[in-house]
Specification:
The protein contains 14 helices and eleven strands. It is α/β, with parallel strands linked by helices.
Length: about 325
């Protein structure tokens, strides 16, 4: 067993987990390997693992496959299993994105019945590398390129736990073979009409150029460390610059903002916008926010602007920037 897999239990013991956790289990080698490791850990810690499989209903055989996963889970100690179904008419476009959103919503509802707050998912090092490439192609900044987090709160009120981000797909497959862990292969993972399978198909070419999954994931990890430092610094600036907080917006000391690094001020603006529009489905386009930031920081004649449902106005008399709900 590889060192990252041997460190699995140690890494979990450092997390603030309760006496029961949930696990998203599709039946693929990644999630089945994770469920096996969770079962081993749970036996030693007196924890219950509630495995949840989503039947998306996108293929005729999906219901039988979900039942099979349930039968496999019965052989693992300290593990329960439940199937939840994605009912209703299915989308004709953005199928994977819509299925993902439905999956997490269904699992979150199921977790309420068990009182669990942490959902384990089997994203691994190769997934992290693919995420890096996808976000690079979309022009993401540092936050996007830093990849998936080990702990990630979601809008559904649950926290995703990704304990395998340092583990390769190869190691997970080897564990399945070593421990006779059953698994099934999802044909959509090989369908090159989707982006991730196309990236997997190009893996050999990328590795020849030095872009191995390990190297890309390591780069994402280093960027995540830089992101964490920036988040800490921007939180401090937010508190220093905030002069008044109201239900409809915030006043910030413009002199403090203008004497600070633009990256930190950008994050202060984003934090304020997030607090003012907690139910927003998306953040404003970065280019628009950067253009607004340039005006706020350098334009003495800045007379206000709107962006993403928020108002930005400069009050020269008391040297404050107002960020309020539009």
């Amino acid at each position: 067993m590889s060192q990252p897999l041997e460190d699995f239990a140690l890494s979990l013991n450092k997390l603030p987990l309760g006496k029961s956790v949930a696990a998203g289990v599709s039946g693929g080698p990644d999630s089945m390997a994770m469920l096996y490791l969770l079962s081993e850990w749970a036996q030693k810690n007196g924890t219950i693992v509630h495995a949840i499989t989503v039947d998306h209903g996108l293929r005729a055989e999906s219901a039988d496959e979900a039942e099979t996963v349930g039968n496999w889970a019965k052989n693992l100690k300290n593990v329960t299993h439940r199937i939840v179904e994605w009912r209703g008419e299915k989308p004709q476009t953005r199928v994977l994105e819509e299925a993902r959103a439905a999956r997490y919503a269904l699992i979150a509802d199921a977790m309420k019945d068990t009182g669990t707050e942490h959902l384990f998912v089997a994203h691994h090092r190769d997934d992290q590398a693919e995420t890096f490439l996808i976000r690079l192609a979309k022009g993401s900044g540092l936050d996007g390129l830093s990849g998936m987090r080990v702990l990630q709160p979601t809008e559904n009120g649950i926290t995703l736990v990704r304990p395998l981000l340092n583990v390769s797909k190869e190691d997970l497959l080897a564990l399945c073979e070593e421990q006779n862990i059953p698994y099934a292969l999802d044909p959509s993972n090989e369908n090159e009409k989707y982006l991730r399978p196309r990236l997997r198909a190009a893996q050999g070419i990328l590795e020849e150029e030095g872009l191995s999954a390990k190297r890309l994931a390591t780069t994402a990890k280093r960027l995540a460390r830089a992101r964490s430092a920036l988040e800490q610094a921007s939180e401090k600036l937010y508190e220093e610059a905030l002069t008044q907080k109201r239900s409809d917006g915030f006043f910030f000391n413009i002199n403090i903002l203008r004497s600070s690094h633009e990256e930190l001020v950008l994050r202060v603006l984003l934090k304020a916008m997030d607090e003012l529009r907690p139910d927003a489905d998306y953040a404003p386009r970065m280019e628009k926010l950067e253009n607004l930031l340039d005006r706020i920081m350098a334009d003495p004649g800045f007379n206000g602007a709107t962006l993403g449902g928020c108002i930005f106005a400069l009050h020269a008399k008391n040297a404050t920037l107002w960020v309020g709900r539009e």
